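Retry 2 of 3 after timeout on previous attempt. Resubmitting structure tokens to design endpoint.
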């Protein structure tokens, strides 16, 4: 679906205000009844001339283990575009509840490097509303260009699930996907994540979703403990792949099970060299070393 007309915003939206509005919207829906529309907003949201705060970029690089560089990490660009994506899902005509949505998958194309000195035009839209065995899922598409140009340098598709929400006219899959058997390999690394990991990532990404911040705020949204941000985990795995990935690559992540904080996460990264000895692809998988349960898996591949 192609948006009919972009909604141009003067500034990047405030995530804290968006989450407050989402809570108020959820309360209204509980009082007035659930949203029964199966139509997504036709408009995209856009902010032009976005600039990067160098101190924030440095803090991000330090937290995630990215090498200090003028090139913006792909995960940092996701965080930069994230408030705009949330603003589309926070619209009154968006049919799914924002709070409590689960992040199922993320797919990024880093087509060309973006520098911290670049002013950026960022757009976001929603598409592909479809059924899931546990509710309804939707894709949120964000695109980033150098300001005033037409070529997309970074494109990300985030798939979210509204668990327990079944909209009229949205077909539920006839069968559940076959879950692959997972046998934990030998780890190449182990992360020790403290109870404050969610708050630390929120400080550099601006994503203060309550499910990531504390036990109390997570329990208020139905979680037994706070959970790590999916994009913190995925971005840290990307950082562990390292500079071998170059400036143009695809980055795909599937999230299987939440990472409850505090915890230890085991990680295995394997790389594929082409016939010429050049890097082609790295695969990664992370799991709970105590239970053996897979948390997420993905790949980084050369474009």
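Retry 2 succeeded. Sequence:
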């Amino acid at each position: 679906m192609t948006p009919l007309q972009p909604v141009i915003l003067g500034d990047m939206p405030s995530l804290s205000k968006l989450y407050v509005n989402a809570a108020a919207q959820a309360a209204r829906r509980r009082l007035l009844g659930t949203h029964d529309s199966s139509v997504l907003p036709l408009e995209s949201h856009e902010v032009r001339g976005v600039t990067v705060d160098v101190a924030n970029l440095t803090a991000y690089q330090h937290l995630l283990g990215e090498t200090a560089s003028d090139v913006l990490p792909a995960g940092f660009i996701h965080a930069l575009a994230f408030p705009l994506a949330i603003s589309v899902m926070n619209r009154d005509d968006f049919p799914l509840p924002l709070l409590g949505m689960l992040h199922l998958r993320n797919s990024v194309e880093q087509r060309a490097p973006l520098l911290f000195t670049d002013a950026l035009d960022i757009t976001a839209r929603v598409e592909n509303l479809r059924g899931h065995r546990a509710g309804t899922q939707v894709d949120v598409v964000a695109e980033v260009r150098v300001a005033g140009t037409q070529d997309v340098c970074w494109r990300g598709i985030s798939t979210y699930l509204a668990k327990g929400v079944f909209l009229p006219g949205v077909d539920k899959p006839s069968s559940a996907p076959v879950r692959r058997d997972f046998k934990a390999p030998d780890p190449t690394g182990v992360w020790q994540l403290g109870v404050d990991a969610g708050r630390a990532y929120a400080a550099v990404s601006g994503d203060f979703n309550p499910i990531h911040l504390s036990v109390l705020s997570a329990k208020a949204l139905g979680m037994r403990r706070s959970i790590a941000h999916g994009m913190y985990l995925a971005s840290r795995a990307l950082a562990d792949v390292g500079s071998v990935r170059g400036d143009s690559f695809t980055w795909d992540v599937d999230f299987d099970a939440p990472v409850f904080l505090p915890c230890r996460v085991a990680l295995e990264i394997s790389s594929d060299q082409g016939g010429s000895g050049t890097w082609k692809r790295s695969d990664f998988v992370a799991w709970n070393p105590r239970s053996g349960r897979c948390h997420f898996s993905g790949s980084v591949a050369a474009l």
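Attempt log closed. The longest helix spans residues 15-32.
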